[in-house]
Amino acid sequence: MLDQVAAALEPRALAPRCLVVDDDAPVRSAIAKVTQLLGLAPLEAADGAAALRLLAEQGEVPLVISDVNMPGISGMELLEEITRRYPDTAVLMLSGVADVKIAVACLDKGALDYIAKPALLEEVRARVAKALEKRDLLLQRRFYQRNLELRVRVQANRIKELFLQGVQTLAQALEAKDAYTSGHSIRVSRYAVQTAVRLGFTGEKLEEIRLGGELHDIGKIGTREAVLNKPGPLTDEEFLHITEHTMLGEKILAPLARENPTVLRIVRNHHERMDGRGFPDRLAGGDIPFEARIVCVVDAFDAMTTNRAYRASRTPQAAMEELERCVGTHFDPDVVRAFLAAFPDPGQLPLTV
Length: 353
What we know:
The chain is built from 15 helices and 5 strands. The chain is an alpha/beta fold. The chain has 2 domains: 2-147, Response regulator (Rossmann fold), CATH 3.40.50; 178-348, Orthogonal Bundle (Hypothetical protein af1432). Strands 2-1-3-4-5 form a 5-stranded parallel beta sheet, with helices on both faces. It starts with a helix and ends in an 11-residue tail after the last helix.
């Protein structure tokens, strides 16, 4: 019979571990035996310093049972360190002083429960079981929250992906509507990216410039074909109508506002001028979003080097000279320099798509 009891109290190799910390060896041993009866494999430490060393060597454990008053590192200090280093560990505090303030302080610092000494072993057993159950619930809730956040993020990304696919289909429809601008959006996007790299853009910001360049004219889907393809000069009414494509594009892309505000700024402000005579907001100089200034330059270059209904294309060299001529009034000088540095050989332009 005694052999069976002893066997029941032997730590099981695969049992989850717990750590019992108390400078009173008989109390520590008794609590360790209670945890064994609950299916745990106890580790023992006589003070806070020894407990931290054990945790560093052995790794995180599901449960720590610690006395409050110990020499050296106190139980309260140990509690703070454990909650900081091992936030998934449940901590149960013991104290020989029945003081409500101490109990409240322990709970406030992250302990799951507090037991006043001397405690019946059955009470310790019940509190340990309750602490482990509470820990499991907390971990389950955290897992559920993280899993839910991941699912929401995946779903949001999928919605965004489908939205962008739809918008890119619109962009293709726009180019089919305006035969003179076939490939324009892709070329502008590529010019913008290589220019932006010269200006120090990387990562997510660079991707936003790529997307903004591709979608900068999306609002022209609402522009009358007679205006888009008019071979002669526009009337004031027709010019006003075509300027509205910047605001309509912003409205179409409004679902991107939270995560991709740069794209919206490009779409709205890529026709602003440094001298404030652009549209739609008549912004000037540094008030124009820098990314929009990049697309402004490369959009103008591509427009000049492709045939339009109202004029024949210019050579890339002539278009580059026009960019330089309009530095400071129409175009940002830094952007023009970066564009010319990114594409030093006019003979290789325009890009083919």
